[in-house]
Amino acid sequence: MIIRIMGEGQVEIAEGDLEVLNRLDGELEESIRAGDEETFRVRLHALLDKVRDVGRELPDESLEPSELILPPSDASMEEVRGMLGDEGLIPG
Hints:
4-stranded mixed β-sheet, alpha+beta
């Protein structure tokens, strides 16, 4: 699966890593529902850090279509809320 982090580039994620990313995504959603800005910030960074950690960075010249687009690390809670789908940022 190809994931784009806005403002950074693309990474390729193995299907086996989606479970942990879904868990982190769920925790991020919880903080948004609670309106907890401090926890939101920590959880957004945890999700993005995990994507960077488990993902293989694709070269800038790669033209692969992104299957998911994640917000940048400095996104506001409202921006992320607007990006959430029925299944969060990461479906599954």
